[in-house]
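User: structure tokens for this one?
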Amino acid sequence: MHKFSSAARARYLHSALTVVFISLAALLILFAFGQPASADTVYVSPSGDDANPGTIAKPFASLERARDALRSVPRSHNRTVVLREGIYRISKTLLLGPEDSGTDRAPAVWQAAKGESVRLIGGTRLTKWQAVSDETVRARLSPDAREHVMQCDLKESGVEALGTVQPQSGARAELFFNHHYMPLARYPNEGWLKIADVPPDKQFKFIDKDDPNLTRHRGPFQYDGDRPKQWSGASDIWVHGYWTYDWSDEYEPVERIDFDTSLIWPKPPYHGYGYTKGQRYYFLNILEELDQAGEWYLDRQNRIVYFWPPAALDKSDVMFPDLEQPMIVMDNVEHAALRGITFECSRAEAVVVKGGASNEIDGCVVRNVGRTAIDIKGGARHTVRSCDIYEVASTGIGVEGGDRATLSPGGHVVDNCDIHHFARIQKTYHPAVSLNGVGNRMTHCYVHDAPHQGVSYGGNDHVIEYCEFTRIAHETGDVGVIYSAMDWSYMGHVFRYNYFHNIHGPGELGCFTIYPDLPCGGIHLYGNVFCDMDQGFLTNSGRGMTIENNLFLRCARTYRFNVWEDLSMFRPGGPWEMVERLERIKYDQPPYSTRYPVLARLAEDFAKGDAQASLRIIPKDNIIRCNVSTGPHFLGLGAKASLADVKLEKNLIANSVVFTGSPSGDGHSQTYSHDDEAIKTELGKTGNVVSLGDGGVVAPDREDFRLRANSPAHKLGFKKIPFDEIGLYTDPYRRRLPLRAPVLSPSSRFIVGETELRLTPNRRGARAGVRYTLDGTDPTATSPEYRRPIRLTQTTTIKAAAFGRGAHANETSEIVSATFTAAYLGAGHGVYLSDLDEIDYTGPDGLGSLGLLKNRAPHDQPLRLGGTEYKKGLIMQLVNTPNGAEARLTYALEGSLAAAQRFTARVGIDDSVPATAKTTCAFKVEVRRDKDWRQVFDSGPLAPQQPPQTVDVDTAGADRLRLIMTGGGESPTSPRPVWANPRVE
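Assistant:
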């Protein structure tokens, strides 16, 4: 036993007490901050100092200093950088290299302190606002704006790089107000203008780069009206438009405006596809048009921002980005993680991962950045988990990994991410997630509110599962929620257990939800739910698809397998280099020929030489099995493809039109309705059931997608879809689910008499109540709470949102809205059929110019008949049926419509069809009384440019009304027969 002097004992007790005190202090710190204090952990704070030791009490100030400090710690240790609460101004890229890696057991972690908000910002917060005093500027502002617009001197605020308007550079000048993009002052404030015309001068003509048979216009275009005369003193004006196609937008600087000829001269180089009459655009960056809350204008010459704030500036966050390089680059790093950090306000990427392996980005927020938010370029097994990405200019997450030569997987995963309001500036081909390479996965994500694509993919063996997609393609057409193109070898993909709903593209062709474009294939589409959308599936000559056990409910068209007729695309030297792409990866040799047998069969077609190139255009080796489908049209098949190329097995087909195409692939397409016994017998041979109705689904409007006990699909072998497992989930990085917008039903937007409107809370989001308004204003926390169906009898605009409860008490979902337009029967009133939903339809299997058009002619042109323009009407394009060229629409005269006494219309061929067209069509009307159909009108054959006829028939006591078209002549399906002002009274 050791003996101590009294002094020694005193020193020992003092030391012991000191150790106890320090230990207690450490425990208190650990309890307070949830972080260990050790040599392996360094702290950073906006109020720190790089001369500090990087402890919790004396943190560093910069991320670079923290990085450098940890590089001296062995890689085998748990190296951690803890970021304390606050704003970190990022002026250059934080570069992490191999020396910043961790191990699988000891990852290197950069994380926000527990419970603290950490924001990395690549811009300046604007605070020095003042009223506009320059009388010259005030005179250019609209009278309504003069007392609201504020100005901020960017030079005084320390902003140097102003950027441009052009988004393709990724350096666009933006203004963010409370994390939302503010629109540059524009005209019109909402919606679009249309190109009035293009000059006929030969000097402006060129051949379309994708189609040698099309001549385009490249040069000035004409506008309507005289609004631009108000901008005579303006400079730096831009236009943004979808100049020729609904899938190709671009911002163009205006070189000059000729007020005498009403011509806009874009500054060269011109848009690649030129400018086309009738296409949509708007003007932007005009001080005179700064006329509503939220708009802003940048005076570059004087470096001043003019802004009409939508709320009080002293309680808001107004940011101007200027960083034009990524905030963080992880270059060949392994086993590192970024956690709980917010990246915002930049003209470039938030995080770029190059090479490396097994890195994670967990629980982060990315908003208000100008390029791809998180970009993974190569490497293996990187994960983006439980991140929120929104209000970004471009793509959400880019993923590239795996070896296409060997088909070795990359193993990257995007999991549990909420990605929305992306592609805010660069509208087209900037999806929520871009999957490229081999063997990458996207799972449990929620993708919503975007102008164009949801997901793009290229390469092989990708998986998209348990994801939800809604409100996609709200600004474009001829687009896919999930899209790929150009390469036969893109195969091996699995899309399963996803939910697609409320998806409609305003462009001419709408949205094709799953869209393996020319000539992609190789998809296994299993167990998905598609509800309320333009079209479910489209491929152009794609091969090797298996579509099974899906619900397609209220899709205007369920499937289309096109035969692409341009053989030049399928030969060497074609515009998309499709043949060369095959040869580069040696598709006819292992591993491709063995992994994907469909490619071996494609090789057999190629072995027959270019003279037999027509064999390559057929969409072969496709199977549609055990699906449930409702809506107007089930399957459209290119006339040269047969039901041996696209096999139908054990499907429940509850569509008006069952099939358009040729069962034998002989090139003679016909349309077969649900009541055609021959097609029912033919499809019955492979177990299909044709039964017009709702498909036996319990309640799609309330997201109850179970099958009723009496649904025929049970006997066909349909398996239950795990719907409740789809979408976001809670985990250590996503503690709460976001609020979800309610579902509006019914989908019809026209009221006859009255209707009951239901607002269904989304059951997969956080706890919430639904509040609404009926006067077009945005709902607030004091608006009426939805408790029972709302009875509507007059024209009403409803807006609704979910308002959180409990932990979400201060949160609000996106606002959904709809305008219900009332129509009435009675003296002086009537109901237009073009505003109603038909109950049965036989016609083309397409949208836009390919099918039934309501209240417009093809290419969004007005209806014209006999020299008169009509705002209401129908164009029923004819199709070949077993009964000849025909089209049919059937309406139910029930409920309030049961009181209809007359049906009236003007009928004839649209004025756009020349008299030289050798074709005729006949208009017929049938009504049903007591289950007995009778014809009550027949126009006889009408030729182009003949005077229209008047329809006026008795419908009293009828419960059905049917419009029928028949055709004749050299091109019996080509006329544009118009029912102008078709209405019941």
